[in-house]
Amino acid sequence: MVQREMVEEIKGWIYEASEVIKAKLAMPLEVAEKENRSDLVTNVDQEIEAFFIKKIRDNYPNDQILGEEGLGDQVTDFKNRVWVIDPIDGTLNFIKQQENFCTMLAVYEDGVGQLGFIYEIMTDELLWGSKELGVYLNEKEIIEVPNKPLEEGLININTSIFLNNHFGMQELAMEALAVRMLGCAGIAFKEVVKGHHQAYVSYLQPWDYAPAKVIFECLGLSLQTLNGESLDLTKKVPIIGSTPIVAEKITVK
To answer: Does pTM surpass 0.85?
Structure first.
């Protein structure tokens, strides 16, 4: 019951934040570069992260918070309860397309994922998962994902990984029916859960994959690094999220 109450509370925060985000789309955005010209941050990213942090601080004052924009804590380990926030995942899409972006949030206890939320705002599609309650796409429970091979479906690959053939991904992509590049980790993971894509490959920060890690574990989907490092939620790593049958073909470099 406690986890159910927390789920409903977080869903309320997400829907409230989404209304703010949609309203901000009609206003001029303040945009700044982070690491490069395609890695951007807006005033809305920062405002939404601050919004979630206030909600968490007001209701769970003893918890740690790891946020993409750095407004939370300097999290060095995942002892006790840690919240992971990506206020706007797919910021470049948010700026240029005003769609194909999402907001994401996860809750971990002593390093174990308990709750994960991926909300694609412009389609009103909320994917969430809980170890106790299962996985849901809006109100529909997802029991299992078809375990299809690449030969029968699509693979979504980060642009840099594909163009530079990191980890031999061009060869792997040739086995799929086609390649897609969505520019949003949350939506890419959601497409795997929905059975629309069989794999997603990208370099990801903890806030990019923490919610999906919870959901994938609930469904028996595979989430692993391509370089043999552990998914310890402390640094950026190359990741493939896929059906189990695709994961069997992956050779860690």
So the answer is: yes
Q: Is 86 annotated as a binding residue?
A: yes
DSSP string for 104-124: EEEEEETTEEEEEEEEEGGGT
**Residue 54: band (very low, low, confident or very high) from pLDDT cuts 50, 70, 90:** very high
14 contacts 126 by C-beta, under 8 angstroms: yes
Total length of the chain = 253
39 is in an annotated binding site: no
Token pair, residue 12, equals: 């309320």
pLDDT at 39: 73
Tokens matching residue 173: 């992509």
Task: Using only the alpha carbons of the chain, give its radius of gyration.
Answer: 17
User: Whose CA is closest to 194, among 205, 206, 182?
Assistant: 182
The domains of the chain, with CATH numbers, are 2-142 (3.30.540.10), 150-247 (3.40.190.80)
3-class DSSP assignment, residue 243: coil
Spatial separation of the C-alpha atoms in residues 209 and 14, rounded to whole Å: 17
The candidate with the shortest Cα–Cα distance to 81, out of 58, 104, 48, 115, is 115
Is 89 annotated in a binding site? The answer is: yes
CB 129, CB 18: distance < 8 Å? no
Q: CA 17 to CA 7: how far, in whole Å?
A: 15
Burial 58-76 (b: 16+ CB within 10 A, else e): eeeeebbbbbbbebbeebe
For residue 232, say whether it is annotated as part of any ligand binding site.
Answer: no
113 φ/ψ sector (left φ>0, alpha ψ -120 to 50, else beta): beta
Helix (H) or strand (E) holding 230: none
